[in-house]
Amino acid sequence: MIRTFSLHSAAALALAAALAAAPATAQEAPIVNDDGSITSAQDIVVLGSVGYRGRNDAAEPVLTYDSEFFQRFEPLTAGDALKRVPSVTFLSDVIESDGPRLRGLPPGYTQILINGERVPGSNADRSFFLDRIPAELIDRVEIVRSSSARRTGDAVAGTINIELRDAYELDGGYVRAGGLYYDDKELEPSLGLVYGGAVGPGRLLVGLNLQGRHNPKKKYSLRYKDSPENEPDYATTEFDNREDQRDTRDGKDYSANASYEIDGETTDFRVSGFYVRTDRTESERSFEYDDPTATGGPLPLGPLISDNANVNEIDQENYSIDAKLAHRWSLGKTTLRLGYARFDDKQRETEYQIEFDDKDDPAFEQVFTATDVTDKEYTAKLDHEVELGDDIQLVVGGLYQKKKRGMAILDADAEMEFPGLQTSYDPFADNPTDLMEPFGALKPTDGGVNRIKERRFDGFALVQGKTGGLTWEAGVRYETTKLDIRDFSDPDDVLTQDNDYEKWLPSASIKFDLTSHDRITASVARTNRRPDFNYISPATLKKEVGDNDLIGNPQLGPETAWGIDVGYERRIGARGIVGLNAFYRDVTGLIELINTEETGSEGAGTVVYQPQNVGDGKVWGVEFDISTDLGFVGLPDTGIFGNVSWLDSEIKDFAGERRFNGQSNYVYNIGFIQDLPKWGVAFGATHRKQGAAYDRVLGEEIRTSYGSDLEIFVEKRFGKKFTIRAVGSNLLNGAKREAFNKFDSPEDQADRKFDEYELESEKAGPVFQLMARYAF
């Protein structure tokens, strides 16, 4: 299908250019220009050159990407920006990038840091969705491929550290203005402001941002049922039903950030914080038909067999405040860091459905679900660095962290009868919400009300140094965890469990400069992944695994992994880099669901499952990236960048061998930027594709694939203070496609006796942006 962008659409987008801006926050060390001056706002608004991947001189294998690398493609969120770096995949809805999967592993295997500190999220796997962070906050992104004793060890796949701009990062201010035009003709604003300057003895930076969010998805599903004549080793072929769905996600993100910093002769002080609020409404309308192509009213007038309306109102707040004090004295450098972070997730979901299976007596059902999750963390860190001589340092330190997570999921439902509905109801003029009745009292869901307290005491010691072309680091971290878990689903029977565990996590890294252009890196580290919150609650969830029950296991320990990374880098010209890296992870103590041999709540033929640390797995891959201009062939204003990762893994579960769930077998991104300094113009494009991913859990198997993603931009600069940029994304209208194999029991799954086979396709259409920046 060929799509066109009309002049009418272009005019609407141009009129949308209002105001949108860039916040910022803190980073470990102030970045200034080579002459020691603070970066001017003009240098951010009017980019002086093509952005490249940076080269990090620390011992750890770290890839660094400054905001210049992303900015010209105008990513909306940190997740959108990360689509361009090596080995990051997503299993998100189309035109969304939420939970990053470094090396293709599930989000819980990747450690997400903001300014070097962990931030809580609402997800049960402890992951943090990066679509919560506006891209305008970002100063740089660091991909830390291996672990270090100086950071927590929750990084089996690696660490993504997002550094926000700090008070020493900017002198002056700028506004960012623009609009986004979507496939359903919706227009969303993007407005913001950032300013940095001297205040008293230090420097202050503040930023505000408003981002309109919209995603008009269309879904199409075909479902097939098993039949006796089908071969048991092949998916079902007997058509059962079709579902057409519109899923629109609409909302606003509001963010603010501030940083104040004083750098003294012996003492440095910094306090910084950010706040992000999301107001979002997710609206779904689904029609289910008993015909693969026909449409029409309910039976007996047509093939419609159900009409569903679902609305979810989402209100999320995420904020963090961090204070740092560093003092240099005769015995070295001592640093104290205190932080508080909180994530609040409030969702109110209503669902209304009319079932026309019985044409003489249609059924109407309504359900209301209230979900509240609060996750807050207090953190204190103290470390001390002392010189041992000959450019060798000893660093020792500790961490105390107190986490409190509360969750409450309550629902109410009702079933009612409306005689004659099959002839009086018009699905194309009416809505199931028209039939709604008052809900009864909300009641806790099974395992839906609990509180988890987690206390951590960590200590670490490492030695680092540099000798000639060799930079090295070796250390060990000792992590202890104490858990207190309570389930309040039944007020008359509160379930309480405790658990303690500890881990030694050694690590070592080297970086050796063979020449001024060539470098090799190598690292080894032990890391861990803590259990999902929904697995450690002691409650029993009825019919959680098909018709089988699931009981939590508060005594679960973390999964652990030994990892190796070996890489090579070569400098190309003044700023270009080409790199090749190979990695391997040996994971033990994987959490798998085990049959307890107890009879489930549905009686004979059902069982109770429980998660236990019984599995092992291996992950490996090769990563290649290049980022350079073409000055060596006479094109200094042409920049090219690209990366490709080949990813693989092996794990044994209840049905045999498979890859880690959701791991794509490859991901690549290629692009170019062409600058025309004489005319103050630049343009470029990027193309991204990730391979198919496969998930297998009890009762269900899913294969997920995505189409290619093409983005282009055109930029015009006016003097040294003003830039206008037009961007088009998802230009190939790439679809997300999923194939579901569903089974009644683990035995049927092992014997390949399908209960249902479903094919689902999801599309959202291209998105066009027009953005402007003005420095003052």
Polypeptide structure, described:
- Belongs to the TonB-dependent receptor family.
- Keywords: Cell outer membrane, Membrane, Receptor, Signal, TonB box.
- Residues 217-259 are annotated as: Disordered.
- It is found in: Cell outer membrane.
- Residues 1-26 form the signal peptide.
- The structure is a single chain.
- 5% of the residues lie in helices and 61% in strands.
- The chain has a single domain (7-775), classed as TonB-dependent receptor, beta-barrel domain (Maltoporin, Chain A, Beta Barrel).
- The chain is globular and about 85 Å long.
- The model is unreliable at 1-36 (pLDDT under 50).
- With 776 residues, it is mainly beta.
- It has a 22-stranded antiparallel barrel. The protein has a 6-stranded mixed sheet with strand order 1-2-7-8-5-6.
- The protein has 7 helices and 37 strands.
CATH top level? Answer: Mainly Beta
Total strands: 37
Poorly predicted spans: 1-36
From the alpha carbons, calculate the radius of gyration and give it in angstroms: 27 Å
Q: What is the domain tally?
A: 1
Q: Hey, roughly how much beta strand do the residues contain? A: over 45%
* CATH architecture name: Beta Barrel
Q: Report the average pLDDT across residues.
A: 88
Distance between the termini: 45 Å
Structural class: mainly beta
Q: Provide the CATH superfamily.
A: TonB-dependent receptor, beta-barrel domain
CATH topology: Maltoporin, Chain A
Shape: globular
Pfam families: Plug, TonB_dep_Rec_b-barrel
Region (Disordered): 217-259
Domain TonB-dependent receptor-like beta-barrel: 268-731
Biased composition (Basic and acidic residues): 239-253
